[in-house]
Structures are given as C-alpha cells and as structure tokens.
Amino acid sequence: MLKKGKRPEDEKSAAYSDNTDQKPFTSIPRPETTMDKTVIGEKISIEGNISGDEHIVIEGSMKGNVEMEKHNFTVGPKGRVEGEINAQNVKVSGQMIGNIKTQGKVEITKEADFMGDIRAKSISVEDGAYFKGSIELDREPHRENALAGKSITTASTQPVNEPKPQTAKEDAKEN
C-alpha cells in the first residue's frame, strides 16, 4: 500500500540521508589477482610504446616497445608484434620480430613465428615453432658462486716425466 503524503522521491532521498542509525557505505577493496590482464583484440592495431602494471595479451597487431618488468606479456596465436619486450614472463604464440628480455621464462609455442634475441632465466620452444635468433640464459646466483670458487686448470697433481735432453754423444750412439 502507498502511504499518503509521501512521494517516492522523498523515500529515496531519505534512504541516502545521514542517519546516525545507519552505517556509512564503504567500498570494499577489490583483491589484487594475478588474473588482471588487458587483451588487445585481433581487430586492433597499436603503434607506440606500452608500459603498465597488469598482464597484457596481444591478439591484434602492435609496433613498439613494451616495458612491464613485473607482469607477463603474451602474443596470442593471431597476434603480430614488432618491438622490444621487457616483461616478467613472455609467451609467443603468434608472429614476433624483436628482442625479449625477461626476469623469468620465455615460452615459444608451436604456432609461433619468432625472429629476435632472447635473454631470460629459462626458455622453452615447442616442436614446430619457427625461431631465428640467439638465446642468452641468465645463471642462477648460487651456480655462479659455486663455479667462481673452483679454478679451472688442466694441470694434474702428478709430476710430469719429461724426457731429458740428450747430449750430442748420446745422439751419436743411437745412430
């Protein structure tokens, strides 16, 4: 039933008024997830540099550099990228021309067509992928220290028996 004397607008404004009985509305912060990502669709073309604080997937085309050291960069199966990539982890499933530098892993899938140099902690290249370039793997700190402590020599601890030089008399006796 409708109450007489009050308009619906009055009821709405009363709901938003400052009543001491009601708790104020507080926004609940959204938990940060590793699933936050931006997808550049296959009908989108970007020319320019990208930097950001979330993961990115390129399904369209992009020409430019990417700087996102703490997030992942993916070239999707339909993606085409030309530029330098600096990201936490990189996955290439489409076409890419350029260099990759990561603190983590580079994954090149069987659908990929990649030309460029890679510097990473680890890399995987699936059978069937096209790869033309060079790879430099960063060493783990504990492996560097272990190798630095050992000297690399070919000398043995056994004394070497060198032949004595022969004198002219001994040479004459043999002949």
Write the SSE topology:
Layout: H1 8-15, E1 37-40, E2 45-47, E3 50-51, E4 55-58, E5 61-63, E6 66-68, E7 73-75, E8 80-82, E9 85-87, E10 90-92, E11 95-97, E12 100-102, E13 105-108, E14 113-115, E15 118-120, E16 122-125, E17 130-132, E18 135-137, H2 141-149, H3 168-174
Parallel strand pairs: 1-4, 2-5, 3-6, 4-7, 5-8, 6-9, 7-10, 8-11, 9-12, 10-13, 11-14, 12-15, 13-16, 14-17, 15-18
Summary keywords:
175 residues; alpha/beta; six-stranded parallel sheet; 3 helices; 18 strands; 14% helix
Question: How would you explain this protein's 3D organization?
Answer:
This protein is an alpha/beta fold and 175 residues long. The protein has helices spanning 8-15, 141-149, 168-174, and strands at residues 37-40, 45-47, 50-51, 55-58, 61-63, 66-68, 73-75, 80-82, 85-87, 90-92, 95-97, 100-102, 105-108, 113-115, 118-120, 122-125, 130-132, 135-137. It has a domain at 36-141. The protein is built from three helices and 18 strands. 14% of the residues are buried.
